[in-house]
Description:
By secondary structure, the protein is of the alpha/beta class. About 40% of the residues lie in helices and about 15% in strands. Zinc ion binds near residues 8, 36 and 133.
Amino acid sequence: MLIDTHCHLDFPIFDSWRDQALAQARAAGVGAIVVPGVTAEDWGRVLVLTTTRPEGIRLYPALGLHPCFMSEHRPEHLTRLAQLVSEHRSELVAIGEIGLDFQIEDYDAAAQTELLCDQLQIAREAELPVLLHVRKAHDQTLKLLRQLRLPRAGIVHAFSGSEQQAREYAKLGFKLGFGGAISYPRATRLRRLAAELPLEWLVLETDAPDMPLSRWRDEPNQPVRVAEVVRIIAELRKMEIEQVAQQTCSNALALLALA
Ligand SMILES: [Zn+2]
């Protein structure tokens, strides 16, 4: 079985072909998809979508306030998040998507950091893992995670850091999400990491509809592509696809406690 640990299947872009995307994913062996919320406005949509039970594939919700949408977040959204987390504790598999993005234009580092800390606190109290979005801010994120140890760690989605940073995350119990970025020949550092890091640290993802793979760069990404991600990782590692699928799947199952 394959698990897409990060897929925005709730986004309206999927409205006209969501069932088709799910059927294709299922046919390619995808058995579970984690759907993270990015703004308070999306949370209801994520919760409703993930209660549907399409045959042969499980959808799991996570809720969070994403650092790329700072202008949409309000202080009361944090209160609402804490409330939803306690109401839906048994369905939620993580707090996310949350994090730090110091690559976007005119980012406010202090505001992002404060929002992340508040959400890490919610994750810690609920004993939930986190789904992290981190760009150009790995050291800052690691520093926060060391200060505020999370009992269940989480996933650094679309990992873009160095080998050293990967090691630091792993020390804290984090897994690293690998997706479409490794399909680009120019992504040499990332491809080397996908080839060389211990397989126990890796999980698969698509980040669909974003981050399309090189072969499908002009169309929206979709969860079936996790099958191509696992194929590329196996090729880079000179391993059997089945072996990579099995280990990354068990990494995700254990971390997220998927039932
Ligand atoms: Zn995402």
